[in-house]
Design a protein that fits this description.
This protein has about 200 residues and is of the alpha+beta class. The protein has helices spanning about 10-20, 45-55, 70-100, 110-130, 145, 150-160, 165, 170-180, 180-190; strands spanning about 5, 25-30, 35-40, 40-45. The chain has a four-stranded mixed β-sheet with strand order 2-1-3-4, with helices on one face. The longest helix is centred in the middle third of the chain and has 31 residues, at about 70-100.
């Protein structure tokens, strides 16, 4: 069976596509919001979707949920950090810089500066964490890392703020690793951001 992924092929739906590729699940992208249809089952919100597929196809492809309950706890912790601390300032900046001007909006430099300051604080926490482990939740790539790929890509490519990653030795090494995974390279190549 082919999974149907509804949503534009940028941002949050890219998170879902990367997970499906890691789990080696056949899918068909189309639609307007991040929603999947798996037989009669429908689910929305990209992080719920990636958790669903990582669990449903746990024995297939890359193990993304950890091998122990403790690993799973760390993965969930870093997924929350990504959702509540990493993505929000980036999302606002992406809207301000990449999409707002197309709608006649002028970017608010004060908000952009505040967003960069917030993100720098988050990346400083990541720098400390990544000095102790290869990935955010331990020594194996997981959903915690995968979930950072779409907006991390916006940071380095769309917003031109790669220095925020490169200026942090451990974050830079981590980003180079996760963004060079074959699944992510395929997402970036096959589903480019339309801006």
């Amino acid at each position: 069976m082919v999974v149907k992924v509804y949503g534009p092929v940028y941002g949050s739906p890219q998170r879902v596509i990367a997970c499906l590729l890691e789990k080696e699940i056949e899918f068909e992208p189309f639609g307007f919001v991040p929603v999947i249809q798996d037989g009669d089952y429908t689910l929305y919100e990209s992080r719920a979707i990636i958790r669903y597929y990582a669990e449903k196809y746990r024995s297939k492809g890359t193990e993304l949920l950890g091998k122990t309950i403790e690993e799973r706890g760390l993965i969930e912790q870093w997924l929350d950090v990504e959702a509540h601390s990493f993505q929000p300032p980036l999302y606002d900046s992406v809207i301000q810089v990449l999409f707002g001007p197309r709608l006649g909006m002028t970017p608010d430099q004060t908000r952009l500066d505040e967003n960069e300051k917030k993100l720098a604080q988050v990346l400083d926490v990541y720098e400390e964490r990544l000095s102790k482990s290869k990935y955010l939740a331990g020594d194996s790539f997981s959903l915690a890392d995968l979930s950072h790929l779409p907006f991390g890509q916006y940071l380095v490519a769309g917003l031109g703020k790669e220095y925020m990653i490169k200026d942090r030795k451990n974050v830079s090494k981590w980003w180079d690793d996760i963004s060079s995974r074959p699944c992510w390279k395929k997402v970036v190549q096959d589903y480019p951001v339309p801006v």
